[in-house]
Amino acid sequence: MYKKKPFIFWFEFASTYSFISAMVIEEKAKQYNIPIQWQPFLLGPIFKQQGWSTSPFNIYTAKGNYMWHDMKRLCQKYEIDYQKPTNFPRNGLLAARISCLLEGKAKIDFIKKIFQLNFEQDKDISDIEILGKAIKEIGYISEDIIDKAQTSSVKEILKNNTDQAIELGIFGAPTFTIGNELFWGQDRLGDAFDYYQKIDESSLSK
Amino acid sequence: MYKKKPFIFWFEFASTYSFISAMVIEEKAKQYNIPIQWQPFLLGPIFKQQGWSTSPFNIYTAKGNYMWHDMKRLCQKYEIDYQKPTNFPRNGLLAARISCLLEGKAKIDFIKKIFQLNFEQDKDISDIEILGKAIKEIGYISEDIIDKAQTSSVKEILKNNTDQAIELGIFGAPTFTIGNELFWGQDRLGDAFDYYQKIDESSLSK
Fold this sequence. Notes:
Two copies of one chain form a homodimer.
Chain A: E1 7-11, H1 16-32, E2 36-40, H2 44-49, H3 56-59, H4 61-77, H5 93-101, H6 104-119, H7 128-138, H8 145-148, H9 152-168, E3 175-178, E4 181-184, H10 189-198, H11 201-204
Parallel strand pairs in A: 1-2
Antiparallel strand pairs in A: 1-3, 3-4
């Protein structure tokens, strides 16, 4: 039995371009009929390994200025509601842990909600009350998930995701992977889908 | 009289992704019927301002590994002959100065030739003999251009290009600009062309 390796969308809640991908990936995936595995991880430890204590967009001014202009421009292009967050990068640790506990539609609804809070509504996504309210608004996720997300087993899941990202050679977000094949950046989503579609199923299961 | 601002392709001879753009931009530009201004500049001074003494692809290993894999993949996609250079980044200073002196077809032929020497034939593009041979092979460029390129007035042109790039907020190559609008990265060429096509001519000449 041969089975294609999953198409994994690696995202980080603080990442601007991850927000764009989260908003557009479902519609694009439908066109290609490709199932997506949404995978939260943390950029913090990866950036720390590179000697950065914050986002490179804060460290390298020209790059940061470009990114904020580009965000406005891309959100217009994709018709995504957007406002520049007054605090960047926001701490998405707890939200990422919660998303590790969720599956299916609940997971996607929660992830998109958190991204929208950060990049549409300029809310502090590390605030436990804001997270609680978001879960209430989604409606069908049990509110005790916030407590569950703070147990060591869940912390371990997110840590493993981040370790796996580093092992795969991921250095930024969003990144799309199929097996060991990496596509970095929201603008490479189409290339990643094309790759997934073209690969021979048998060649992938080796 | 209203006139559209030029579509400028900012490139650096050491830059891998600039090579890809140089190989594909003419055909794409023809589809859009957009004239291209090929503009050499130097990344060295820009990287130095950011505290880097070499390419960030050499400093940040995961990013570098990804880039080399991506180069192979993109060159296959675009059917560009490519081999990984044994020395990176190569010093394109003299070649950039020469290209400042050229115009029209001679300029484009020379630029593409240098990129191919670096990224297809693994040649040292800072070597004056290799540059001389390249000019001879192109056939219709006077060989004394190498001497002319080393005069202070030509050095000044390239320095001005780099200063202008910094002023525009350019931080990497390739970058495409239309007025103050920047598009960074070979994967954003289509966006840049779309932008150029859509803009109202009168709005640009303000």
